[in-house]
Amino acid sequence: MRLSQMLFVTLREDPAEAEIPSHKLLLRAGYIRRIGSGIYAYLPFMWRVLQKVSQIVREEMNATGAQECLLPQLQPSELWRESGRWDTYTQAEGIMFALKDRQERELSLGPTHEEVITTIAKEMIRSYRQLPLHLYQIQTKFRDEIRPRFGLMRGREFIMKDGYSFHADEESLKKTYDDMHKAYSNMLRRSGLAFRPVQADSGAIGGSGSQEFMVLAEAGEDEVLYTEDGEYAANVEKAVSLPADAKTSPFTSYEKRETPGTETIEKLCQFLKCSPTQIVKNVLYQGVYDNGMTVLVLVSIRGDQEVNEVKLQNELTKLADRYGGKTLLSLKVPDAEAQSKWAAKSLPLGYIAPDIADDYIADQKQLDRKFLRLVDKTAVELKNFVTGANESGYHVIGANWKEQFQLPEIVVDVRKARPGDRAIHNPAQTLQSARGIEVGHIFQLGIKYSKAMGATYTNEQGEEVPLVMGCYGVGVSRLAQAAVEQSYDKDGIIWPVAIAPYHVIISVPNISDGEQLQAAEKLYSQLNEAGIETLLDDRNERAGVKFKDADLIGIPYRIVTGKSLKSGKVEVVERASHKSEEIPLDEVVSTLKQRIEVAIHK
Amino acid sequence: MRLSQMLFVTLREDPAEAEIPSHKLLLRAGYIRRIGSGIYAYLPFMWRVLQKVSQIVREEMNATGAQECLLPQLQPSELWRESGRWDTYTQAEGIMFALKDRQERELSLGPTHEEVITTIAKEMIRSYRQLPLHLYQIQTKFRDEIRPRFGLMRGREFIMKDGYSFHADEESLKKTYDDMHKAYSNMLRRSGLAFRPVQADSGAIGGSGSQEFMVLAEAGEDEVLYTEDGEYAANVEKAVSLPADAKTSPFTSYEKRETPGTETIEKLCQFLKCSPTQIVKNVLYQGVYDNGMTVLVLVSIRGDQEVNEVKLQNELTKLADRYGGKTLLSLKVPDAEAQSKWAAKSLPLGYIAPDIADDYIADQKQLDRKFLRLVDKTAVELKNFVTGANESGYHVIGANWKEQFQLPEIVVDVRKARPGDRAIHNPAQTLQSARGIEVGHIFQLGIKYSKAMGATYTNEQGEEVPLVMGCYGVGVSRLAQAAVEQSYDKDGIIWPVAIAPYHVIISVPNISDGEQLQAAEKLYSQLNEAGIETLLDDRNERAGVKFKDADLIGIPYRIVTGKSLKSGKVEVVERASHKSEEIPLDEVVSTLKQRIEVAIHK
């Protein structure tokens, strides 16, 4: 393509709307254009990158025997009501766009396709002989993000590959899940990215196990904890570890103490000269289920630990049945207003005891609101501990479960793993922290959707049982931007060769110089004929402008038809290293062809 | 691909939801699945067809120098308000889905992208040196159709290629428009379709000229009028012709006559023993402009002619200025209720005179509603004509313009051309009628959008002037179904080779016969290696079922590894002709490769 015939506009200054390097660069280099909040146009360069990423994804998916299809973006609300996710997605999380058609029927814009594909499976799969089956699509998806940002990283309209597999049993699911692990690793490797698969929380998608594929980058929104032996890596939301050992408590007899101004663990430790590992901290949450039921939750945890709210949310979801609900709609620390509604008298924040219920929330039971006590594993084993006295300015010391306080019935693991914690698989390893951009997520869904939606098949024994499902997603547009976030310098983007919009750019320093232009045109047609995707910068611009633009847009190889033409050579500059060399005209095509092939297939 | 590993389910019976053959066949053969009204999933076979059509479209577009991009489907309402189309699209026609995000900002789902692309052009194009420029995309689009039907023909979610070109002047636009005419003809020819380009109305898109590409098929929703010399073809909405000559009126003196029970032209002619060409028929319409202004329109036209409402709509749109509006929102024959509101006394329907205004709608002027009289060319030249007397049961005869009736100021051509009319370019040719499926539409938009949205560039003279635009659409999913509508038989689909999901299907009559299976497997891998897209029907089914399925899904060549194996041959059946021949095993690949190449490139 000739630059003179393209919509080619670059910016010298960073656009005000962009926060992270990749977003700034994609805007400056004319790859994308903002049309609305979280909504971007993919201009021709970007579209070429996205097509290349899509093609790599497609090839790896096809190689596993999965088949491509395209499901509708408009989805009737009935399907989402059947699976029980309509309310969660349109209201609680509110991340699904909903609309009404001219008949006032409710529709949504697909953020994901479990409901649609399960409906198709329900209608078309009858027998175990049709299994396993794996369908995927590459499609624009929609999420009404609370805070769209970072360009394509967290947009409201984005491109995803999503695949859904159907199986007769867990063993077959596990095999496809493992195949997907390999396929996803291949896709990312072939796209030229440094990445790490990590254990992940399954969130609103649900299911029994999942892994995320994280592209490592400082601007990543996710924190990953991993061990250096390569044996463990998890999203911090999901990570587990061994807590530090608790110190033996110096308080051997039970006593109530005046502890003024000790609302925080730190102040309390200073005041009592004790370790945070000797304290039972009691944290209040308020959960709301999909049937409207509000539950006040008190979590008792060891003083040096923090509550991982994703884990807590999962525990509360497991308890939904108990409150007549199906899912938890929201979880938060109750604000002042909520607290005043809850408590019969003002809550002694910072001084709450594990049994706050009796004293402070007696009224709640009359209101048919529920109170739930949970204790984290770290707090169970403590002896002679310090904890709140349910009275502002007072704590108790030397307390023990089953003596002064009933041990809550439900013991959970809701503690947040932290960098520096010892690893469970090998306590000699400590957890390290890294930032990552989630570009892939694979799930073992099990029968969550097939059961809810009645998608069954007849097994070999002639019984009708629910289909076992898996689902697998790749953020295609996010992956493309993640590549930039991982690979740029002060001059611009450095595309991995496999997903660069073009392989080569020929910069003609002076287009009024007939010799330069002629050499460039000849190379341009030779390179194109050899299947090397080439740009010709034939604009009437200064050489300096052309070189700056070539660096900014990040094409792997730049050919300059300049002074060295006198000796029958051109300058070839590698974008990543800025290394320059002179190559004889008749060797340019073969040299570049070989380098590009090596780069793409390495 | 092995059928045993696909989601392959065919139906023996026609599904109740489908009306036309192509819709029935795509459902029966498992190409598509209905998810909601006008909403379909494209299953793997269909997706392969759509990808092939898309690739042909892409190649033809790229060959003209147009560049592919992808614009957002979510479009901020502000853009549509700028162009002045928000109300027309969301309310009057109501064909655009609108929704609100979590911030209560209005968005629409793109049915077309003039607004988005013009915004980009406005921001990025500064100078004539950047022109001409042509961007296109292949994308899912949305229309909230009043009556979604015929499967992919008129869906609410469908795939389109839409392209937009920008020019410094009309001459450059005309060149690209001509290039598109050629590119579209190539696309349809290469896809194996019989089609006809026709003159078309530009509708809500606007602009100065447009052509539609019609795939000829009985189930087509459009009527095309054409001449056999190939010199003229137009959508009936747009078609022009010479009306038959009027007969000389026998009524040489003016007189009011009692004509009871003559509300129709036919009855009136019988009663008065005259020709319909001697009558001035007066038809009432009610138009509403975007500023809320309602106008009562009386159209006088020769009695043997019908009003073409699309032409009338265009005339009224031209008059929008006069009523302080920008566009016409709706046009209809006023219903009984509207008439009673309009008329000071009950309207003498069937007996209305060209000057109904004075007598019946005197009150309207007080209501600040407007009355407009239009006369069609066919009525202007009439002498001594018959027309209504503005009194039920009475007509006048021997009337003349400027004597008994004022000739309306505005003379228009709003008559409907009909099969049998004489052609304007050559009165010896008469118009023929055919049904067509509109799969492409190309427009010369001119400066309609660039002017409304302030998209200007600096021309060679240094003046800032609006960009001249064109736009060009192909219904990719509609085209794919149109191919089926044009090519099927009682046994199923007959795909044109170029867009068939696979080229060859190998049907193994009996998979427990080792020799059959072995020969089939060998051919399967040889064909795939030769780049021939091949299905292997390795299901444990009866041969008859396999042959029926192969015919239904319409794969161009079927190989049967049956009895002829004994003599080292297989049976090869051509789907279109059902012709069967025996081909030696070692000639199958080369024979088919050659036939497929000929079929694709013819």
Automatic annotation (TrEMBL), chains A, B:
Family matches, as InterPro entries: aa-tRNA-synt_IIb, aa-tRNA-synth_II, aa-tRNA-synth_II/BPL/LPL, Anticodon-bd, Anticodon-bd_dom_sf, Cro/C1-type_HTH, Pro-tRNA-ligase_IIa, Pro-tRNA-synth_IIa_bac-type
Any GO MF annotation of the entry: ATP binding
Residues of the Aminoacyl-transfer RNA synthetases class-II family profile domain: 33-496
Gene3D superfamilies recorded: Anticodon-binding domain, Bira Bifunctional Protein, Domain 2
EC number assigned by the record: 6.1.1.15
GO CC terms of this entry: cytosol
Reactions listed under catalytic activity: tRNA(Pro) + L-proline + ATP = L-prolyl-tRNA(Pro) + AMP + diphosphate
PANTHER family noted in UniProt: MITOCHONDRIAL RIBOSOME PROTEIN L39/PROLYL-TRNA LIGASE FAMILY MEMBER, PROLINE--TRNA LIGASE
Alphabetical list of NCBIfam families matching this protein: PRK09194.1 (NF006625), proS_fam_II (TIGR00409)
Subunit architecture: Homodimer.
Name assigned to this protein: Proline--tRNA ligase
